[in-house]
Design brief:
Structural class: little secondary structure
Strand order of the largest sheet: 1-2-3
């Protein structure tokens, strides 16, 4: 699960690209959100009906569930860059529960 957030109405000067967020090792709870994706408002638009209309053009034709478009946005060096927060609870993996029979 992921979320895209954008700050609206901010009068701060805009640098070339957003900065990465350092990791934090807080306890995790499976019911909580695991990570956020942050992007500047209006710079990334996924058109789920017509992926050819995606913004920016570097992700045109990609769908939300294809990693290539996301990798392009994570690697961007301009205002289309998408920042992933560290996993909430650190970069650990969630241990699978026992089977329900």
């Amino acid at each position: 699960m992921f979320s895209l957030f954008a700050l609206l109405g901010c009068d701060c000067p805009l640098p070339t690209a957003l900065a990465s967020i350092p990791a934090n090792s807080c306890p995790e709870n499976i019911g909580q959100i695991q990570r956020f994706f942050i992007v500047r408002a209006g710079n990334v638009i996924w058109d789920t009906a017509t992926p050819a209309n995606n913004v920016p053009a570097t992700i045109a034709g990609d769908t939300l569930d294809v990693v290539n478009g996301w990798n392009t946005l994570f690697a961007a060096a301009d205002d289309t860059k998408v920042i992933k927060t560290p996993l909430i609870g650190g970069d650990s993996s969630i241990t699978a529960g026992t089977a329900i029979t």
